[in-house]
Design brief:
This protein is an alpha+beta fold. The protein has 2 domains: 17-79 and 98-113, no CATH class; 162-336, Immunoglobulin-like. The protein has helices at residues 2-31, 35-64, 76-109, 125-154, 264-271, 302-311, 315-320, 324-347, and strands at residues 162-169, 172-176, 216-219, 224-230, 235-239, 244-248, 254-258, 278-282, 294-300.
Length: 348
């Protein structure tokens, strides 16, 4: 309520200033004075005051809303991104502040005065070259550095990177880890049903031990490759603490590689918040249930990660085994084996 009252008060003050300015203009006109020059003087003073208040407001809002800024980076590449962001913010911030100061100062210093004509300054090739070339060079450097890091975090994964599949679906996330064999099984959208939510192809033995937990776990200081996709509409994998923001699109898989550097327990101490948890959310408005599309994320020590992994059971064992789906899979595998044997006999 206080905010609304402040806004209303500022609007009333603005309207009052405008009305006073108009009244003063009418009075000067009746006196036979040059009302336009007097208005220029008032506008110059008002613009200078506005510039000062505007810059003070920027400083205050930066301080006041600082708790809402991005949290400390918890990934290796996050430090690269933060460095680029800070450099860009500092450069553009300096230019912005200087131009606003110049704008306010010039509006006040060179307002219309009696007997003083404006100086006609048509062009200055040297000056125009400077303010064109210098920003172009600065922006080119920023873009090149940004592309360099972008290719590093979206390029091929290292041989020791662990693969985790993330699939977006209205309105939750489906994650899949490889089992003890370390290989993620293939999947096929034609196999998707109420039970097999990501269409794992169990004819491929690599998929028989895949696990599908309801939360994400990463081991600290280990590289990961996230294979990202979607079942229905465009979603977006958002992990702000890890500086991850990648589209999840149906029919067009994307990927993102990263290395977590701060465990959940360490971040609890850093934030002085015993209830702190990492979270994965959807960063695109994907429908009416968008706000509920979240998943808990944990960064563990090696011991914690191995203990969690050992508790997990394969998706096949927990959701498929003993159901009609298993019978279909067994029948399909049996038929495939019989076909292969028949083919071998005919070749002989």
């Amino acid at each position: 309520m206080t905010t609304y009252l402040v806004i209303a008060a500022l609007l009333l003050i603005g309207m009052l200033v405008v009305q006073i300015s108009k009244a003063n203009e009418y009075i000067n006109t009746l006196r036979g004075e040059d009302a336009e020059l007097d208005t220029d003087r008032i506008n110059g003073v008002l613009w200078l005051i506005f510039t000062i208040l505007f810059l003070v407001g920027i400083v205050w809002s930066t301080w006041y809303f600082s708790p809402l800024f991005l949290p400390e980076s918890a990934s290796e590449h996050g430090h690269w991104i933060d460095t680029m962001f800070n450099i860009t913010l500092i450069l553009t911030g300096i230019v912005f502040v200087l131009t606003q100061i110049a704008l306010g100062w010039f509006a006040w210093k060179y307002h219309g005065k009696k007997g003083k004509l404006g100086f006609y300054y048509p062009e200055n090739n040297k000056l125009e070259m400077i303010w064109t070339v210098v920003p172009a060079i600065a922006l080119t450097i920023l873009v090149v550095v940004g592309l360099y890091y972008w290719f590093r975090i979206t390029g091929p994964a290292s041989a020791d990177a662990r693969v985790v599949e993330i699939t977006g679906k209205q309105f939750n996330w489906l994650v899949r880890y490889p089992g003890p064999d370390g290989k993620l099984g293939t999947n096929n959208w034609k196999l998707i049903d109420e039970t097999n939510a990501v269409g794992i192809d169990f004819n491929n033995k690599d998929g028989l031990d895949d696990i599908m937990p309801t939360e994400l776990h990463f081991e600290v200081n280990k590289p990961y490759m996230l294979k990202i996709g979607a079942r229905d509409v465009i979603h977006d994998v958002g992990l702000p603490h890890f500086r991850i923001h990648m589209d999840a699109m149906p029919g067009l898989p994307t990927h993102f590689k990263f290395t977590p550097t701060i465990t959940t327990d360490e971040m609890k101490k850093k934030t002085n918040n015993p209830d702190f948890d990492y979270e994965m959310c959807c960063d695109y408005l994907c429908g009416k249930g968008h706000s509920a599309m979240k998943m808990m994320v944990y960064v563990d020590t090696k011991e914690q990660y191995q203990a969690w992994l050992q508790k997990q059971k394969s998706f096949f064992e927990t959701a498929i085994k003993g159901t009609d789906a298993e019978k279909k899979i067994v029948a399909s595998v049996t038929e495939k084996v019989s076909t292969e044997k028949g083919s071998d006999h005919s070749n002989h």
